[in-house]
Amino acid sequence: MGTLSVVATPIGNLEDITLRALRTLKECDVIYAEDTRVIAKLLARYEIKKPLQRLDAATELKKASEVIARLEAGEHIALVSDAGTPGISDPGTQLVAQVRAHLPEAKIETIPGASALTAALSIAGMDMGSFTFFGFLPHKKGRQTALKKVATSEIPVVLYESPHRIVKLLKELESLQISRVTIARELTKIHEEVVAGALSDVAEHFSAHPETVRGEFVVIVAP
Ligand code: SAM
């Protein structure tokens, strides 16, 4: 029976990968990747040559039976997403669920490492003893309900957001009387930045510096 290794990869800085992740990527038979071009850059950096297969959100369920057949044949399969930990606002969850359901004897192991969620929390300087993670808010249907949940939460709420919607999100949060936020941008990259404080000041920062409305964002909403 084979092994499915769920491997965390860097969220920006290519040095943020564990020795065990590199060994797993070197030793496995095949890597299933959200985008084979993205993972190819990481593999080139560490001189790893391995067959690649695509497994993204659209193909995850369809590819599960292929992965299960390969595990049954005794193969070692690595699963990676474009950045960070698979299954955290990324493909991976359905594959793992399918393998658990249809091949309970297969070994499923985690190769832990970077995630934007834990990276942001580690430098937020806020008591994160308990928090809620919503990932990306729905774009249309269900957005208002989700925003209300954010506004009424008694513990910090962590969100993921893209540069296209960050300004809109800040406006929406302002209209919900949210007072304080921490925004962690471009973590581990050249333009890494944390902006924290009163929501109005943070929103002002991004409108005064439009060049910072770029890259990837984690938003922590204080209760
Ligand atoms: N699986 C990933 C993880 O473990 O963090 C998350 C993937 S999700 C598709 C991508 C989102 O994660 C981005 O839109 C952003 O909100 C957040 N993110 C990823 N890399 C980041 C970084 N370097 N700095 C800040 N946020 C980041």
Structural notes for this entry:
The chain is α/β, with parallel strands linked by helices and 223 residues long. The chain folds into two domains: 3-114, 3-Layer(aba) Sandwich (Cobalt-precorrin-4 Transmethylase, domain 1); 117-221, Methyltransferase, Cobalt-precorrin-4 Transmethylase, Domain 2. Helix content is 35%, strand content 22%. The chain has a five-stranded parallel sheet with strand order 3-2-4-1-5, sandwiched between helices. Helix 2 links the parallel strand 2 (30-33) and strand 3. The N and C termini lie far apart (47 Å). The model has no long low-confidence stretch (mean pLDDT 97).
Distance between the terminal alpha carbons, to the nearest Å?
Answer: 47 Å
Number of helices: 8
Biggest β-sheet, characterized?
A: 5 strands, parallel
Rg, Å, rounded: 19 Å
Q: Give the uncertain stretches in residue-range form.
A: none
What can be said about this structure in brief?
The protein has eight helices and ten strands. With 223 residues, it is of the alpha/beta class.
